[in-house]
Amino acid sequence: HADTDEVRRECRAQIERAILWGFDVNHLGSHLDALNARPEFFDVYLELAVEFNLPLRLQSGDSESTYGFPFRRRADEHGVLSPDRVLRPRTAEALEQALAEIEAGVTELVVNPGSETPELRAAHPGWNDWAGQHELLVDTVSIPKLLERTGVIRIGYRSLRDAQVARGA
User: What's the pLDDT score for residue 19?
Assistant: First the structure.
């Protein structure tokens, strides 16, 4: 239950504060896709992405039916870049399969690592997946080898931002 103008002011203030503090802001993202869920909030999100010439962190296109409006197409119409798809593998096996089948383009890989603790078990029903993802990420040998074996090239949002700026969005 937020007012659109308040959302705009708050988001703008956060971006401007980050810039003032010297952060190299390279994309906009909203926790749990809160700004994707309602078209009027997405308009704010997109407006700020255009104003600050930043890519957006968006869900894959198949999520548009869930939200009920074509947010990816709207971003594209405004020259705002985002990853082509988002993968959220829950296990090492799922990650390996996803990377083996990855399509050309930019794919965001999302993991939620967490150390297995009583607090994590109590806080989240998916604690076992998070603990498994933690183990996967701290094994510094397996992920680079897996990426090399599957031919995946790692980039970050800075690369997307630089591409967006270069094409004059």
Answer: 98
